[in-house]
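Session log. Operator J.P. requested a structure for one protein chain; no other inputs attached. Running the standard single-chain path with token output.
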Amino acid sequence: MHEMSLCESLLKVMEQEAARQDFHKVLRVRLEIGALAGVEVEALRFGFEVVTRQSLAEGAALEISHRPGRAWCLGCTSEVEVGERWAPCPRCGGYGLRVTGGDEMKIMDLEVE
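Structure written below.
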């Protein structure tokens, strides 16, 4: 389950920022996860709860917003929205798609004290 390692990396970023910006508690974490990022959201929520125990983020609310997948179709030369990495182009049905967005996970902001 790579979601656990994502949560460990997320906690490390929060700890680094706490040292840099001098805060002691994370109250809320807002993430943006692309449809093509390959992240299982429920597993991420579970991992976040486990990884943040006895840390500066214990009990923090985890808010997740979703970003659609975007790809450039080589067949019809259009940018299209896709829900899966290996889906056909919704315009022409071709499979020559190059992902242009929605394959990332970003920390949008932290609410801290």
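Operator note: The longest strand covers residues 26-34.
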